[in-house]
User: Fold this.
Amino acid sequence: MGDPGLIRTYSARVSNLEREPREIRCAAERGAGGELLEGRAVPLGGPRAMSVSRTLPGAHRRMIGAWCFLDAYGPEVAAMRVPPHPHTGLQTVTWLLAGEVLHRDSLGSLQPVRPGRLNLMTAGRGISHSEESAEATLHGVQLWVALPEEHRAGPPAFEHHAELPVLEGAGFAATVVLGSLGGAVSPATVHTPLTGAEIAVDGTGEVPLDPGFEYGLLLLDGEVEGLARGPLAYLPPGRDGLRLSGRGRVLLVGGAPFGEEIVMWWNFVGRSHDEIAAFRKEWAEGEGFGVVEGFDGDPLPAPVLPGVRLKPRGRVR
Assistant:
C-alpha cells in the first residue's frame, strides 16, 4: 500500500475515526451469495494518514456471522497514535502480521500485541481504549464482532492470548484466533458461534468448514489460487470444506448468520437511534466509559450525529 519508505502517522486501528461516519445500513436477505465484497479505501487520521481497505460492512453484505467490521492495512511504515475512544455492544479483535502495538484501556490493561498474538477487548455496556506504536512496518487487520442481545450490556473485559491452537493439514496450517475450526478451539471468549483464523497456505489442501456457517476469505499476502489482494470473498452456508492452493496467508472469518438487527455508528453498536445518541452524549460528557490512564493526550471527540434517525437493520441489503 504505497511507498514502503514513506513514514506516515497512522491514527486508527480498532476504531472508526472517520470525521463524518455514515449510518451503516443492513436490510433483508437477498440471494445465495458467491459475491466479492470490494473494499473501499478509507483514509484515517488526517492528510498523512494511512489508508485502510474496508470490506465489512460492504455495499450489499453488512455482516458475516457476527463479524461486522473489517479493515485491512499495510504493510507500510507508520507510527500509530490512537487517542482514547469509546466502544459499546461489540468485541474488538487486534491481529497483526507485522509490527507491535501498545494497548491501554479504562480497565487498567496495558498490553503490547505482536504478530501471532491476540488482543480481544469486549466492550459490553461501555469501555474506552487507546493504541500506540513506534515508527515501524505495520501490517494487519482490525475487526469487530457484534454482541448478541443477552451479552451486549454485560461488563467490559480484556484478554490477551499469546498461545493459540493451530490446525494442520496437507498444504496448510491454520492459527485459530477466535471460535473454532476443524475441532481446534481458541481460548478467547466468544458469545456466538464463530470462526476467525489466519491460514498459512503452502501447497494444496482442504480446510474443514462448518456447513451451518457463512464465511469470508481475505488474501493477506502471497499468492493463493482464486484470490486477489483487496476484496473479501463471501461463501454462503452449505460448504463442509474449502480447497486452497498456493503459497501465502489468508484470513478466514465466519459464523452462524446473525439474526438480530443492529445500529452501527462511529464506534458504537446498539439497537436504536436513541440508544446511540445516549452513548454519544455520555462520551461527550465524560461519563460511562471510564478513563484511560497513561495516554499523553486528549480523548477523541465524538462526531456530530447525522440529521436523520438511525435505523436498526439486518445483516444484508
Notes: The CA atoms of residues 41 and 230 lie 10 Å apart. Residues 273-284 form the longest helix (12 residues). The chain has a mean pLDDT of 89.
